[in-house]
Every structure is written in C-alpha cells, then in structure tokens.
Amino acid sequence: MTLNHPDFAHWSEQAARWGARYRATLPEQAVRPNIKPGAVLAKLMPSAPEMGEDMAAIFADFERIIAPAMTHWQHPRFFAYFPANSPAPSVIAEQLSASMAAQCMLWQTSPAATELEMCMIDWMRQALGLPDGFKGALHDGASSATLSAILTMRERALGYTGNRTGLSGGPRLRVYCSAEAHSSVMRAIWFSGIGEDNLVPIPIKGPLRGADAGALATLIADDLAAGYTPAGVVINVGATGSGATDPVAEMVAVARRHDLFTHVDAAWAGTAMLCPELRGLWAGIDDVDSLVISGHKWLGAHPGAGLHFVRSPHDLNLALAAHPTYLDTPGQENLVNFSEWGVQLGRPFRALKLWFLLRSYGLEGIRAMVRQHIKWTNELYARLAATPEIEIVTKPILALFTFRLAPKGVDDLNALNLRLIEAINDGGRIYLTQTNIDGKLVLRMQVGSYSTTAADIDIAFDAITETARRVMN
After folding, report:
1. Euclidean distance between CA atoms 195 and 231, whole angstroms
2. 40-49 own/partner pairs: CB under 8 Å, 24+ apart
3. Which of 175, 191, 339, 442 has its CA 20 to 30 A from that of 357?
4. Strand, coil or helix: 155
5. What is d(CA 121, CA 130) in angstroms, rounded to the nearest whole number?
6. Are 305 and 347 in contact (CB under 8 A)?
7. 0.90 surpassed by pTM
8. Same domain, 364 and 337
9. How far is the C-alpha of 91 from the C-alpha of 97, rounded, in Å?
10. Which of 375, 374, 399, 395 is nearest to 442 (CA)?
C-alpha cells in the first residue's frame, strides 16, 4: 500500500524508536547470529506479492525474520574485520539524506551537497595535517577510490590514451604493492584491464611488515630492462591482515625517480592520523598523489564514506570524466561535479553524515576515542602475551594485533586455531576474524567500536582464554 504523509511520519517514528531500542539492547545480544546458511531464505516468500501489503505486516516480518539474523556491527564487542561505526548523529543525518533522496552527481543536481562535500573534504584535510594542495571527493568506500586511483595511474602511464584506444597492442603496464595489500588492489587491477600478472609483489621486512623500498627500486629497474612500463605504486598504511605499514617516504622517493603515480591505502589507519603524535606512521604522506581513508570505519560516518584525497584533480578528471551534453550545466563554468572524480555517476548525499558527526563529537572527541582504543588494545595484548599457550604473532599496530593458540605437542596448529575462532564466534560474546601470517592461521584482534568499554575488553580476554582452554581439552 502507498504511505500517505501521516503514515510516513508514523512509520518513520516507529523505525527510529526501533533503532533506539536495538542499540540500547545490543550488549545483551550475541554479536553474530548462530544460524545456518539458508535459514533466512526459507522464511521469505518465494516471489513478490501481486498486491501491496500493509506496512504493519512488513515491519513485523522485519522484526521476526531479518533483525534476529543480522550480525551486529554496532555491537561493543565487534572486534572483527574493521569497525563500521555509525553513531547516532551519523544515523540521523542518513535518515535526512534518505528522506531527500537527492542525486548528487552534479553541482546543479544538488548544490548544497556538492559544496558541503567540498567543505568536509577540506575539514578532514586540515584535521589530518595534509597540505593545502590536496582536494578530494567522497566515494562509497576504499575499493572505489582505489579503482579510481588505479585507472588514473593507468591513463597517466599511457598518456591518457587508454580510454580511447584500449590496452590491446599497447605497452605492458606494471603496478607494485606488497603482499599485505588489500584484495581491493587486486580487484582494481582486474577491472582496469592491467591484469593480475602485472601486479608485482614487493617483499616485506621489519616489525611493521612494510614493503622493502630497496626491493621496489630493483623490481622497477628489472621491469624497465625487460621492456615493461611501470605505472604506479600502492602503499599500505594499516593493511587489513595485521596493520602492515609501508615506509611511505622511502616508497614515494623510489616512485618519484621514475615518475610513477603513488596511491596510499589508509582505509582504517587514516583516522588515527587525526592524532598528531601518531603521524610518524605515515611520514612522507605530503608527497603522495592519492590517498584513501574510509570515513565509515574508525572515524564513525555511516557507511559508505570513502574519503579520497588527490594532489591533482585534473589527472583524475582526464582519466574518469565523461562529458555528454545532458550532463552540462548551461551558463556555468569551472563547476565541481563530483561524478567526474570517481567511477560512479549516481551519488547519494554522503557529506551530510560527516558534517553531523564532526560537529557532534568534535575532532578532540574522536581523537580521545582513538587514543582509548589504542590503550585498550595494548592492555589486552599484554594480558594475552602473558597467558600460557597463547602466542603473539604480530604486535599491536595502532589498535590491531594478531595471536594464536600454540600449545606444545600439537602438529596442526592451523586446524586448532580454526576450531578456536569458530568456537569463539559461535559463543556470541565477541566476534573475531582470522588472517594468514607467513603460513600461520592467526586470530585478529582490533578495537574500534564507538560503544566499546573497558568491561568489553575484559569480556574479550575471558572469551578468548576460556574458549582456548576448552578447545585444547
């Protein structure tokens, strides 16, 4: 049935009240539902209804079928992946944005959205200590920003001819990144047509598991001698597996010697650079060409809000912008049309949630949260490091470390740790994810939820150690 204005107001209010109850009761819920694949599908109608249904029935089914089968990303003990924070001010902004349902592809289609986006990018540029020359746009996430960067480095290396002539018969391009890079880099290489065989892995070294800049220089020289065309370098600052961080300044210096485009993936760790004392982790950032931070991770903007900063918007436009007549704005020149700064033409109003968030918490409020999360991470690391049978595999980088259960006399530690993480997550008290470090299956621990408290860190320690004792017996 069609909702009239009073009904829309009523059900919007019901949704808001449900959301408030949901968040208030999250600590009492299991972080991840203990259900089998197909359980939700079995409860859904096999085909769409021919006639409209009453909103009360739809809402009731949402509460009965959907909500109980969700993994709770806003849970205070969500320690898996990276946080996908969305505190209340950001949610309210998203509700307003959804009500307007604006298409923000051009300045003329949403003037306020475009100009607020320009402002939010500059607020964040200043807050992160980036140089004046950086501009940027908001994407749905780091993957889209990385694809935009890879397409730009491709076109730049080809003299901006690839979009017109294609890659067939052209030079074989090469892009370089460490094996710790996020899978979005590999996917961008696929989608850009460069090809997986031309993504060159850089050896890693040191406690930060960063790329070896000397090895990068050798790889580039070897490729040039072989007749390849190096196009760009992707640099990690806080990679997903263990927080691996490359030596940014050294990597950029090597790239500059060969006029290569540099893109930094700081999707998670970039938020920590709001704290001036942590910026040594990305020393050299002023000289990169492109940088992405996921504002919907640690920062707290409702998903998605990928902050893509670039040194030269002109290069981005040359690689990505199309100019059909129907997208012109007659009578206006030198407008910023953010659809020309990325791969999406259709764009929602993303800047509003950042505006609400930054004004509600203030930069100092977010810095305080980041510092607290890092403190708690180090405290939990120390407690686990002192626990018999627990092996720390990688030490904390910001608010992330990895560990595993490693009792003596067990031949297959990977299988044991797979059982451990399955048991921890099935228990519901906390939620962790795993990664592979030098052939070892290890558990990742990251602290990043706005709602986490010191008591939740104690619960995490208990859940890990109690479950570890159980799986060893």
Report:
1. 13
2. 40/65, 40/66, 40/69
3. 339
4. helix
5. 11
6. no
7. yes
8. no
9. 10
10. 395
* Separation between Cα atoms, residue 273 and residue 282, nearest integer Å: 8
What is the CB neighbour count within 10 angstroms for residue 371?
A: 16
Structural domain range at position 15: 5-30+33-70
Q: Confirm whether 82 is domain-assigned.
A: no
Q: Which of 22, 49, 70 is the last residue of a domain?
A: 70
Q: Which residues contact 426 (CB under 8 A, 6 or more apart)?
A: 34
Q: Is residue 41 part of a domain?
A: yes
Instruction: Write out pLDDT tens, residues 15-46.
Output: 999 999 999 999 999 999 989 999 999 999 99
Half-sphere exposure of 109 (CA within 13 A, CB side): 18
Same-domain pairing of 339 and 369? no
How does 298-319 read in b/e, with b if 16+ C-beta sit within 10 Å? bbbbbbbbbbbbbbbbebbeeb
Beta-bridge partners for 245: 237
Handedness of CA 443, 449, 451, 457 (dihedral sign): positive
Structure tokens at 155: 């076109």
Residue 124 tokens, joined: 């964040």
H-helix or E-strand containing 367? helix 351-385
Neighbours of 411 (CB within 10 A): 6
Tell me what pLDDT residue 331 has. 67
Whether 329 and 448 map to the same domain: the answer is: no
Question: Which CATH number does the domain housing residue 23 bear?
Answer: 1.20.1340.10
**DSSP calls for 163-229:** HHH-STTS--EEEEEETTS-HHHHHHHHHTTS-GGGEEEEPEETTTTEE-HHHHHHHHHHHHHTT-E
- Domain end (from 348, 383, 406): 348
**End-to-end distance of the chain based on CA atoms, in angstroms?**
57
